[in-house]
Design a protein that fits this description.
Layout (H helix, E strand, L loop, with lengths): L3 E2 L10 H10 L11 H21 L6 E4 L2 H9 L8 E5 L4 H4 L4 E3 L11 H12 L4 H7 L2 E5 L33 E5 L18 E5 L10 E5 L25 H19 L3 H18 L4 E2 L10 E5 L5 H10 L2 E2 L1 E2 L2 E3 L2 E3 L2 H5 L4 H4 L2 E5 L6 H22 L1
Parallel strand pairs: 1-11, 3-4, 3-5, 5-6, 6-7
Antiparallel strand pairs: 2-8, 7-8, 9-10, 10-15, 12-15, 13-14
Helix pairs in contact: 1-7, 2-7, 8-12
C-alpha cells in the first residue's frame, strides 16, 4: 500500500534543492566564526542563505537572525517586550510556541466562518491603547507587543487581505509613540503565498525551515526594529551578537536553498494546482457528509489546508483510522500527558467542544496528485459510513 502524506503543515519533505545544498555543505570543514579560508567558506554559506531567506520574506539581509527553530525565534522576540514598553499579549488562536508566552490571553479576530472581525480587533486595539483593565495594568503593565499570525497552522485562515499585519500602522521601533508592536508568525505562510505588508512591517517575524522544504532544527527571527534584540543565548557573539552558538551551517544552507526554491514556486503559481485539489477534496467530502463543517471555507486560506469536523466523530479516531488506511493527517486537537483536548483554536473561534474535538487537518503539498485525493476521499467515505452506522 502506497502511503499518502497529507500533513505538510506539520513538516514538509526535504526539497531536492535543500538536500543538495546540505550535502555540499558537509564538505565545508570551517567554523563560520574563523577568519581563515576554511572559516570564510563556511561563513559564505551562511550569508548566502541569509540573502536567500531575505529575498523570500522581503526584508534586508541583516534583519535575518538564524535560530534553532521558530520556537526559539518566538522566545527571542518575546524577550524584547520590556524594550517595547510593556507586556506581551497573544491571540487565543496563536500557535503554542507563541501563545505559551502570553501575559494575557486575547480573543480571536476571526469569526466561526473565518472572516476577519473588524469589531473584535478594534476592541483589542482600544483595550491596548487604553491600557487594559485598570487592575490588570496596575499589576502587570500594558500590552506593548502583540502576536498576530500571518496564517493559522490549524485552519489555514490568513490575516485580513492576506497581509501579515491586519492593523495598518504598527510600531516597528523598540519603543515609540504608536500604541503597540507586532510579532507575526509566518511559519505556515512563508513559501506558500507572498509575504505582503501594509503601510509598515511588524516588529518581528518568525519562521522555520522544515515548513517550506528545508531541514528540521533551523529557524529564523526577522528583526524589523531599529535596534538589535538583546541575545538570550550569550557566549561567542555569533549572528552579529544577537544569538550566540556556532551556526548550524549545514542546516542553514538547506534553509536558504529551500527558501529560494519556495520563492520560485510562488512566482510560478505552483500552489494554484494544490488549491484546486484541496477544493476537490472538500467538495467530494461535502457531497457525502452534508453535516461536515469546513472551517473557514469561505475565507482567505492557505492553498493547501483544510480543517473539517463531523460532529461526534472524534478527531483522534479519524487520524488513527486514516493512518491504518495509508494516509497521514493531523487531529484538530492536541495531545498532552496522554490527554486529548478540544482544539483551543476552534473554541476561540466560537465552536463548541463537540466540533472542536472532532476536527482533523488535511494539509496537501506540491507533490499531491489527483489520485492521492481520490484515494483519500474513498477511504474517508468508508470510515464515515461505518461511523454513521454505529451512531444510528
Amino acid at each position: 500500500m502506497k502511503r499518502v502524506y497529507f500533513d505538510h503543515n506539520a513538516t514538509t519533505p526535504l526539497r531536492a534543492e535543500a538536500r543538495a545544498a546540505m550535502v555540499a555543505a558537509m564538505d565545508v570543514v570551517g567554523n563560520p566564526s574563523s577568519v581563515h579560508a576554511e572559516g570564510r567558506e563556511a561563513k559564505s554559506l551562511v550569508e548566502r542563505a541569509r540573502a536567500q531567506l531575505a529575498a523570500l520574506v522581503g526584508c534586508k539581509v541583516n534583519q535575518v537572525i538564524f535560530t534553532g527553530s521558530a520556537t526559539e525565534a518566538a522566545a527571542l522576540a518575546v524577550a524584547q517586550k520590556a524594550r517595547h514598553g510593556g507586556r506581551f499579549g497573544a491571540l487565543e488562536t496563536e500557535h503554542d510556541a507563541v501563545h505559551v508566552w502570553s501575559d494575557t490571553p486575547l480573543p480571536a479576530i476571526h469569526d466561526r466562518d473565518g472572516q476577519f472581525d473588524e469589531a473584535a480587533f478594534g476592541e483589542i486595539k482600544n483595550w491596548i491603547m487604553q491600557g487594559g483593565p485598570t487592575e490588570w495594568s496596575a499589576d502587570h503593565g500594558r500590552v506593548a507587543l502583540l502576536a498576530i499570525s500571518g496564517a493559522n497552522s490549524e485552519t489555514g485562515i490568513m490575516a485580513k487581505n492576506g497581509t501579515v499585519v491586519p492593523s495598518g500602522r504598527v510600531n516597528a521601533s523598540p519603543a515609540g509613540s504608536l500604541p503597540y508592536s507586532v510579532l507575526c508568525d509566518v511559519t505556515q505562510m512563508a513559501g506558500k503565498v507572498p509575504i505582503i505588508y501594509e503601510a509598515e512591517t511588524p516588529s518581528y517575524m518568525i519562521l522555520s525551515a522544515h515548513k517550506l522544504g528545508g531541514p528540521k532544527g533551523v529557524g529564523a527571527l526577522i528583526n524589523f526594529t531599529a535596534d538589535d534584540p538583546e541575545a538570550m543565548l550569550k557566549g561567542g557573539g555569533q549572528e552579529m551578537g544577537r544569538r550566540s552558538g556556532t551556526e548550524n551551517t549545514i542546516g542553514i544552507a538547506g534553509f536558504g536553498a529551500a527558501a529560494e526554491a519556495a520563492a520560485l514556486d510562488i512566482a510560478e503559481d505552483r500552489w494554484a494546482q494544490t488549491e484546486k485539489l484541496r477544493n476537490i477534496l472538500e467538495n467530494e467530502i461535502a457531497d457525502t457528509a452534508k453535516e461536515t463543517i469546513f472551517v473557514g471555507k469561505g475565507a482567505r486560506r492557505l492553498p493547501n489546508t483544510s480543517c473539517f469536523a463531523t460532529r461526534g466523530w472524534k478527531g483522534e479516531t479519524q487520524v488513527m483510522q486514516m493512518d491504518l488506511s495509508g494516509f497521514a493527517v493531523s487531529a484538530g486537537s492536541a495531545c498532552s500527558s496522554g490527554k486529548v483536548r478540544a482544539s483551543r483554536v476552534l473554541r476561540a473561534m466560537g465552536y463548541g467542544d463537540d466540533i472542536a474535538s472532532s476536527a482533523i487537518r488535511v494539509s496537501l503539498g506540491l507533490d499531491t496528485t489527483e489520485d492521492d485525493v481520490s484515494r483519500f476521499v474513498e477511504a474517508w467515505r468508508k470510515k464515515y459510513q461505518r461511523f454513521r452506522e454505529r451512531a444510528a
